[in-house]
């Protein structure tokens, strides 16, 4: 075996030596042959070697075009292997080799139109056409991109190619008609288009659709034949032809049956039915008429499987506000008698209402209709994918913690071990069910976890991902990063070798290899081994293509200072003077962050040296533009997490330079704040906002800044100026309200309950009600109780104190928004302060049981209890609201702990 391996290594070495001696032309030919043989990885290797051996700029440009196409070919190959992330990364790399338009061919220009922004695509196409002459295919591709992805505004503002801009207004006017299925009118609208127009094939498509509806097959085929194969409209036009052919020959339609069925039934009739459904939904009329409309509509759009269409429509209605849950469930059951229970359980999972228990229930129900174990496993994996993806926000993570012991045993989950372990166990269960669930693997990669057990689960999952996707270097990179965090450098080195074999020219692999070498060098510095550190750094510099240049430069200077803490200012200056001011300050900040835990020897001397340099250089921060300062404040990349103790360079700058935010313009300040705002730095932003709104009222973002400071004071100081927020929103124009809405969405993640809802919807009237005239007593039955011992600023949640006067009417409490708020707050209280939750229930229980005793109802039969309940509600309508709220907040406790009599009267 050893001899065979030795011979293999010898052959590889000889082959490498042979390739190294090849000329530019030979390497280019080899690359072209590999590309022709559909071996893009080998082609890329040859082309890159050809660039190294090139002797002129013309040769480089020639190779660039071939390299561009090879990267695109490799990206297509990865897409076929279900590796979309990696394919997108390669397409991005391909853009670095995009050749000038004067050496482009037709295939290359098609890639440019697909990938570039519209302006750049137009520019390339103009240059290409100037060289090659008119190219109908280019016009077709540009026209398709405009119609399918928009960009009309560009035509209005910029100088676009004449062959596009000349006819664009005609097509733009016809688009709404196409969207509504008015094909004849759309075709008539485009009658003025000449046959040479880049948009002519779109008119032919509309004509084909019209003729299909009229049953004129002969002329329809003629119109289809005039649509170029490269157009996106060719595929659907082909469906028209194959549908007609299948019907004429009495054979099964092989194309998309849903699309074909929709074409036969006719879009206009279906649209009229849809409008009636929408009208009924807006009035919340889930009655027999709406049920019949949905039955009709489902047959119109999907005659082969109308039940599936009905389920799809019902699921769309979930996302609308459902005011009466029981009515909707009855409506759901009437539409889907066999699947209602399954669909309702699915809804609870998607709403993250106790998702794990409901996932178990969903699978139990599904087993009754699906017997294939592989299908059931795929469904279970998809469920865990959804749960893991959704359980990112704090509120949804809280829901994830709630599940029964039976569910825990079924899925192999642990109670009470922390959200990281639970999340990883859910991911592991999903991958166990479907080892090819790549989306779930990618979520695992993105999840940052702490603690030995969750890291061990993540490591095992990454190892299994390497096995499941042996051609993908990405899990190897992440696994190497994990090993770095565990100081398992030998394992990291081995897995990186595998990644290098898989993708030697992938920039991510090269970057991780560089990071690995830097980590090794840092370890050597801490051990005082400067020679070894320099060797590792030199290897990293040889590998770098420029993306890590500043990091490697900082390390070089840092190691010099560590070795000689008395390094002269002149020597240090020589390392900095060649850099731009922004790069210079960035490097100095990196030095300041680097010295936190390194080196072990002479730490105080090195720290003082770098600290003095940092203080001196930071004086120049005022010379930076706002954009440059934002670059300086941006946290370090996640890949550097094992190089620096912290990636939060902004936190260090905020703590050491109080006025650094002064130099950001308001747009950059808001964007930066949205990205890094947290409890540890909000004071710095609050100070800056107060300074700005006190002195720069002419700032176009003035009112947005006011909004930010009002919300921040509410969240962190618990001082909600609700009147000011309401006035601010009411006075805003539509554009400003959009900005408030977007800002509210971003800020809402820092709070919970009614505050989160108010921010997400910019509806502060609810907070106004919650803060005004609260019921001060816990006892809702005593209208004369004026005990004023509740302080609405104490931060404690008392659901009855949140109720303003008059709001205890049952119709108000049925509002789904209020129901969700009270339910979420009750769950939070029960989780965070179970003792207070228990005390509140015990007080309520005592009051309720006293009423039962005072009324002499103990031991009374159920009819007597029901009669008393009706009488009580009739005499005091607010009791309705109280009963609903009691069930919403303390329903589970009440079922377990209230007496039979109290349950009958006060539980629903």
UniProtKB/TrEMBL annotation:
<protein>
    <recommendedName>
        <fullName>Tetratricopeptide repeat protein</fullName>
    </recommendedName>
</protein>
<dbReference type="InterPro" id="IPR011990">
    <property type="entry name" value="TPR-like_helical_dom_sf"/>
</dbReference>
């Amino acid at each position: 075996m050893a001899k065979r391996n030795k011979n293999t290594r010898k052959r590889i070495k000889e082959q490498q030596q042979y390739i190294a001696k090849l000329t530019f032309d030979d390497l280019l030919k080899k690359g072209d042959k590999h590309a022709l043989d559909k071996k893009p990885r080998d082609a890329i290797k040859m082309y890159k070697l050809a660039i190294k051996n090139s002797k002129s700029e013309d040769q480089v440009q020639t190779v660039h075009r071939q390299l561009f196409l090879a990267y695109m070919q490799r990206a297509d190959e990865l897409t076929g292997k279900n590796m979309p992330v990696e394919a997108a990364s390669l397409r991005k790399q391909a853009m670095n080799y995009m050749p000038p338009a004067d050496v482009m061919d037709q295939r290359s220009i098609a890639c440019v139109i697909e990938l570039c922004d519209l302006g750049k695509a137009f520019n390339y196409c103009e240059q290409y056409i100037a060289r090659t002459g008119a190219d109908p295919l280019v016009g077709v591709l540009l026209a398709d991109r405009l119609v399918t992805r928009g960009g009309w505004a560009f035509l209005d503002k910029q100088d676009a190619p004449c062959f596009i801009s000349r006819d664009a207004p005609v097509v733009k006017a016809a688009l709404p008609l196409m969207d509504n299925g008015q094909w004849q009118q759309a075709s008539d609208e485009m009658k003025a288009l000449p046959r040479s127009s880049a948009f002519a094939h779109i008119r032919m498509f509309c004509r084909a659709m019209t003729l299909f509806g009229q049953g004129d097959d002969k002329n329809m085929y003629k119109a289809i034949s005039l649509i170029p194969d490269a157009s996106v409209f060719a595929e659907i036009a082909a469906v028209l032809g194959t549908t007609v052919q299948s019907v004429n020959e009495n054979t099964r339609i092989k194309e998309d049956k849903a699309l074909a069925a929709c074409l036969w039934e006719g879009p206009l009739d279906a649209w009229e039915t849809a409008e009636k459904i929408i009208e009924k939904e807006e009035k919340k009329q889930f009655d027999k008429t709406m049920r019949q409309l949905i039955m009709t509509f489902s047959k119109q759009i999907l005659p082969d499987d109308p039940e599936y269409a009905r389920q799809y429509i019902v699921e769309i209605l979930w996302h609308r506000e459902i005011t009466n849950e029981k009515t909707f469930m009855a409506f759901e059951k009437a539409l889907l008698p066999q699947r209602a229970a399954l669909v309702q359980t699915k809804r609870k999972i998607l709403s993250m209402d106790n998702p794990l228990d409901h996932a178990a229930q969903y699978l139990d129900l599904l087993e009754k209709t699906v017997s294939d174990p592989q299908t059931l496993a795929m469904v279970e994996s998809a469920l865990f994918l959804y749960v893991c993806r959704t359980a990112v926000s704090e509120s949804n993570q809280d829901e994830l913690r709630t599940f029964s012991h039976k569910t825990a045993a079924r899925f192999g989950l642990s109670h009470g071990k922390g959200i990281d372990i639970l999340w990883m166990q859910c991911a592991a269960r999903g991958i166990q069910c479907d080892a090819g669930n790549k989306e779930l693997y990618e979520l695992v990669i993105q999840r940052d976890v702490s603690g030995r057990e969750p890291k061990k689960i993540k490591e095992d999952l990454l190892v299994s991902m390497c096995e499941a996707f042996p051609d993908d270097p990405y899990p190897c990179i992440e696994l190497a990063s994990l090993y770095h965090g565990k100081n398992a450098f030998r394992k990291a080195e081995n897995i990186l070798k595998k990644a290098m074999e898989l993708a030697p020219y992938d920039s991510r692999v090269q970057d991780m290899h560089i990071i690995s070498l830097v980590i090794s060098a840092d370890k050597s510095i801490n051990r005082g081994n400067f020679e070894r550190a320099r060797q590792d750094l030199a290897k990293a510099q040889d590998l770098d293509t420029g993306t890590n240049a500043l990091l490697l430069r900082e390390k070089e200077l840092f190691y010099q200072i560590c070795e000689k803490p008395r390094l002269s200012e002149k020597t240090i200056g020589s390392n900095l003077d060649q850099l731009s001011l922004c790069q210079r300050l960035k490097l100095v900040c990196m030095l300041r962050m680097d010295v936190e835990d390194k080196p072990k020897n002479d730490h105080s001397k090195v720290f003082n040296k770098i600290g003095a340099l940092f203080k001196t250089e930071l004086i120049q921060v005022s010379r930076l533009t706002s954009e440059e300062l934002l670059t300086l404040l941006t946290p370090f990349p996640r890949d550097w997490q094992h190089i620096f103790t912290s990636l939060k360079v902004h936190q260090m700058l905020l703590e050491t330079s109080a006025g650094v935010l002064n130099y950001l313009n308001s747009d950059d300040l808001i964007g930066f704040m949205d990205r890094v705002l947290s409890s540890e730095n909000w004071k710095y932003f609050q100070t800056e906002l107060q300074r700005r709104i006190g002195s720069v009222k002419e700032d176009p973002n003035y009112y947005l800044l006011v909004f930010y400071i009002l919300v921040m004071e509410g969240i962190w100081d618990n001082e909600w100026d609700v009147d000011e927020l309401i006035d601010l929103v009411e006075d805003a124009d539509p554009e400003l309200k959009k900005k408030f809405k977007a800002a509210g969405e971003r800020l809402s993640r820092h709070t919970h309950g009614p505050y989160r809802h108010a921010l997400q919807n910019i509806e502060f009237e609810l907070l106004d009600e919650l803060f005004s005239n609260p019921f001060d007593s816990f006892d809702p039955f005593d209208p004369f109780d004026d005990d004023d011992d509740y302080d609405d600023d104490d931060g404690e949640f008392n659901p009855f104190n949140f109720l303003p006067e008059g709001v205890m009417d049952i119709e108000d409490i049925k509002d789904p928004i209020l129901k969700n708020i009270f339910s979420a707050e009750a769950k939070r209280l029960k989780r965070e302060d179970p003792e207070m939750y228990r005390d509140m229930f015990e007080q309520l229980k005592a009051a309720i049981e006293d009423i039962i005793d005072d009324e002499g109802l103990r031991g009374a039969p159920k009819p007597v209890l029901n009669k008393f309940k009706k009488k009580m509600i009739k005499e005091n309508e607010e009791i309705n609201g109280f009963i609903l709220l009691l069930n919403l907040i303390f329903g589970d406790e009440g079922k377990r702990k209230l007496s039979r009599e109290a349950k009958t009267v006060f539980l629903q």
